[in-house]
Amino acid sequence: MNTNVKENNTEKYQTIRFEVEQGIGLLTINRPDKLNALNQQVFLDIVDCLSAIEDNVRGLIITGEGQKAFIAGADIKAMSTMTESEAIAFSALGHKTTMLFADLPIPVIAAVNGFALGGGFEMAMAADFIYASDNAVFGLPETKLGLIPGFGGTQRLARLIGASKAKELVFTGRNINVDEAVNLGIVVQSFSSQEELLNAAKATLLQAMKNGQLAIAASKKVINESSDVNIVEGLSLENKAFSTLFGTKDMREGVNAFLDKRSANFTGK
User: Fold this and answer.
1) 20 to 30 A from 173, CA-CA: which of 103, 115, 166, 266?
2) Would you state the pLDDT for residue 135?
3) 168 given a catalytic annotation
4) Do 175 and 228 belong to one domain?
């Protein structure tokens, strides 16, 4: 399939847009009147979209519609009448959605513009890394509602910045600006505008797409799976993935291209 052709599957979904161009998928949460707040339908649309991603998509960007918010959080009005059993199902759906980003064998960048609060922050942390514009604001304010983060925030934030700092942010519910987010290692890089942010995310994915896609998938899997194991187990995972790649055509092509002083032509095999 020609990855340079722009495809638009927006009509399939109620709350998101999904477009593919140059092999890059752009998933946009499209509820600007609600500051892109998460409800059950948003999760269902994302799950359906991610479950149907085709092989022509080699990288993914998740972002939010409009200038004000990436995702301002979960839809509090929808949550206000939930029973305990409904809350269990809602949290489980959020976990399923965020894990799909982690399980995709392609690079996923969260391009955060404006507010990324509560579930929005949790969604961003499910990506492989975060780029943000200068007006980005992050926070997990759930304790102000008598709740805790329910879509992976207690787990991902602690792994990202350490338990002590994660507890401080969760206990206080305070927001942080992009400069603090960069200093804490939450955000990889910040940009002056939403346009610059998206262009940088696309440029990073295009650069990654020149490399072996099997190698990227393997490295993502090893990094993710070793984040909560000891160094010996982590090295074992790395050893297995490293050696398995020697049985691929892509590895042979990459090595031969280096020796021949030419660009590699990776095929994902």
Assistant:
1) 103
2) 96
3) no
4) no
Q: Which residues of the chain have pLDDT under 70?
A: 1-10
Is-catalytic flag, 21? no
> Do the domain assignments include residue 266?
no
Q: What CATH number is given to the structural domain containing 71? A: 3.90.226.10
- Beta strands 24-29; 59-64: pairing state: parallel
Q: Is 155 found in the same domain as 35?
A: yes
Q: Please, how many CA atoms are within 13 Å of residue 91, restricted to the half-sphere of its CB?
A: 14
Residue 178 lies in a domain: yes
Residue 178 sits in the same domain as residue 236 = no
Domain membership of residue 269 (yes or no) is no
- Burial-class residue 60 by CB neighbours within 10 Å (0-12, 13-18, 19+): buried
Rounded Cα distance between 175 and 121, Å, is 11
Among 122, 225, 238, 253, the one annotated catalytic? 122
The residue range of the domain holding 189 is 7-208
Measured from the Cβ of residue 255, the count of other Cβ atoms closer than 10 Å reads 12
Query: CB of 136 within 8 A of CB of 176?
Result: no
pTM across the whole model: 0.92
In a domain, 223, yes or no: yes
**Measuring CA to CA, how many Å separate 255 from each of 207, 250, 258, 263?**
18, 9, 5, 10
Label the pairing between strands 16-21 and 7-8: antiparallel
Number of domains in the chain: 2
Predicted local confidence at residue 2, as pLDDT: 45
| Nearest alpha carbon to residue 62 among 11, 14, 116 | 116
Burial class (CB in 10 A: 0-12, 13-18, 19+), 38: buried
Give the active site residue among 142, 168, 225, 233.
142
pLDDT at residue number 4: 52
- The four Cα atoms 202, 15, 13, 87 give a dihedral, to 10 degrees, of 110
